[in-house]
Amino acid sequence: LESGGSNPAASDSYGDRASARARREAREARLATLTSRVEEDGHRDYRKLYEGALTENQKLKAKLQEAQLELADVRCKLEKVAQQKQEKTSDRTSVLETEKRERRALERKMSEMEEEMKNLHQLKQIQTLKQMNEQLQAENRALTRVVARLSESVECSEPQGL
């Protein structure tokens, strides 16, 4: 309450006036900003803003739908590729099994043919042996005849010489 002046009532009234003036100026500044906002709002066309926001919203929804369709398409393609891969794998498995069966059949056929070849070789040997046997039998008969003639001629020549 004490002030530096000699008259305390005069200094209080001066301070009150200054603070009142400051308050008034602040109030006027606030009123000016509020009126400028009201004027700006008056200049804005809320319908245009709403329509702009609505069109932007619709564009975003369209983009979202396109992205969802693209995602569904990619998923479908991915499933097809996975299915084809699985089919190829199963086809490969069946092809491998078929090849194994064919290989076994060919191996069996080869072993049968080898057996036949052995048998053919044995048959050829048997035929060769039969031919040799026939030749030996023929030679044996011929030798028997020769021996028989020689014995006859020896028998015939012995009584004469005695």
TrEMBL record:
The name on file for this protein is: Protein phosphatase 1 regulatory subunit 12B
Region described as Disordered? 1-28, 83-102
- Report the GO molecular function annotations: enzyme inhibitor activity; phosphatase regulator activity; protein kinase binding
What PANTHER family does the entry give?
A: PROTEIN PHOSPHATASE 1 REGULATORY SUBUNIT 12 (PTHR24179), PROTEIN PHOSPHATASE 1 REGULATORY SUBUNIT 12B (PTHR24179:SF18)
Query: What range(s) does the cGMP-dependent protein kinase interacting domain occupy?
Result: 45-152
Instruction: Mark out the compositionally biased spans (Basic and acidic residues).
Output: 14-28
Q: Keyword check for Transport, yes or no.
A: no
What ranges does the record list as Polar residues composition bias?
Answer: 1-10
What organism is recorded for this protein? Answer: Camelus dromedarius (Dromedary)
